[in-house]
Amino acid sequence: ETCLPRIVSGLQEFDTYLRYMETEMKDNKLQYLRMGTVQLIHKLKLL
Questions:
Q1: Nearest-5° Cα angle at 37, 36 to 40
Q2: DSSP element (H, E) containing 46
Q3: Which domain holds residue 37?
Q4: pTM, rounded to two decimals
Q5: Which of 4, 5, 12, 18 could make an S-S bridge to 34, C-beta 3.0–4.6 Å?
Q6: How many structural domains comprise the chain?
Q7: Sorted alphabetically, which Gene3D superfamilies does this protein's record hold (predicted)?
């Protein structure tokens, strides 16, 4: 439980990086990876 905020924070930073890469590269793979990351962040926050 104590690690959960760190994990969520790290995933949010990763999401920011993916958004940057998505705009720079316009690669569909990054869009799908980002969607999965956002869903994971949401589910972890519900715990």
A1: 85
A2: helix 28-46
A3: 4-46
A4: 0.53
A5: 18
A6: 1
A7: 1.20.1250.10
